[in-house]
Amino acid sequence: MAKISKDVLEAVKHLQQGEVIGIPTETVYGLAGNALNEHAILRIFEVKNRPKFDPLIVHVANLDQARDFVLEFPSNALQLADQFWPGPLTLLLDKKPIVPDLLTAGSQRVAIRIPNHPLTLQMLEQLEFPIAAPSANPFGYVSPTTSQHVEDQLGDKISFILDGGPCAVGLESTIIGFEAEKPIIYRLGGIRLEDLESSVGRVKLNLNLSSNPLAPGMLKTHYAPLKKIMVGKIPDLMTKYQHKKIGIISFKEDFKPLNGSTQIILSQRGDLNEAAKNLFSALRIMDQSDIDLIITQRFPEKGLGKAINDRLHRASS
Ligand code: TXA
Ligand code: MG
Fold it and tell me: What residues line ligand 1, using a CB cutoff of 6 Å?
């Protein structure tokens, strides 16, 4: 069992000793360690059971600190950083040699962001090194959005979790890289595409699923819960699987499930931000219940609906 606490100083101490701990961010909880310490990095891969070809995101307290690890910010990157940091935006930029190759899985680019969570920002400000933090789930499972989620799956492997309450965004950060200064989205996430485009103009999407070590590791089953998950028209799926115990995850509608089946409505008022915030918890609850399969729907293709659909698509394939 890990100690779950709001004590930032204690988190700082663990990290200074080279340990790996759970930390909150506005997106999802992270599994944090000193990004410049190879032992800590190796420990992150080990605790997560993550292949070493899948690189880690670096978290810093401010733009000045980011400059210590990045060769240069293209003007578009600077504009995005100005507008969205601290926040759910990760920039893929050319790294300085000080960033360990182990952390970037051999790539010359480093993924970096300033998270927007008060406790974690306080923590980062007190550290003299940046923090590597993948989502704090075992490799291939749904990301955690509460300290209890982290405890449930990794509590026997780490000694401390900084408790920052439920994550406000609930989806991982949006990852953006640049080719000849042009922004390219590699992972849809907590920033709405509409907001990105009103900042830097049209942005290309490259969500190609790849296990190429030098490309963003968007492995296809990355967000899968253990139970089978079907995405489609909920009433049709209910008919099709009427002899099974189903768990319905709907956006806003009540489908009144029968006999042994259950339902979680992500946002009764039809708010995509609220739905995003509740999605991963809902998947976990369904996974732990005694239903046979999860059925859910496609969400509106706007705002965070796009990123929700992306996660559901990966989880169901
Ligand atoms: O919201 C988030 O980004 C959370 C919180 C904890 O910050 N972190 C997170 O990390 O989602 P992780 O490791 O679960 O997902 C990061 C993704 C992975 O698919 C990884 O392959 C990709 O970012 N990535 C990291 N560094 C990269 C690099 N140097 N080049 C290409 N892809 C990279
Ligand atoms: Mg992850």
Answer: 25, 27-28, 30, 54-57, 88, 90, 92, 104, 107, 109-111, 115, 133-135, 172-173, 175, 216-218
Q: Write a three-state SS string for the chain.
A: CCEEECCHHHHHHHHHCCCCEEECCCCCCEEEEECCCHHHHHHHHHHHCCCCCCCCEEECCCHHHHHCCECCCCHHHHHHHHHHCCCCEEEEEEECCCCCHHHHCCCCEEEEECCCCHHHHHHHHHCCCCEECCECCCCCCCCCCCHHHHHHHHCCCCCEEECCCCCCCCCCCEEEEEECCEEEEEECCCCCHHHHHHHHCCCEECCCCCCCCCCCCCCCCCCCCCCEEEECCHHHHHHHCCCCCEEEEECCCCCCCCCCCEEEECCCCCCHHHHHHHHHHHHHHHHHCCCCEEEECCCCCCCCHHHHHHHHHHHHC
- Ligand 1 centroid to residue 6 C-alpha, Å: 25
pTM of the predicted model as reported, rounded to 2 decimal places:
0.95
The tens digit of pLDDT for each residue in 121-176 reads 999 999 999 999 999 999 989 999 999 999 999 999 999 999 999 999 999 999 99
Q: Which atom of ligand 1 is nearest to the CA of 190?
A: 1
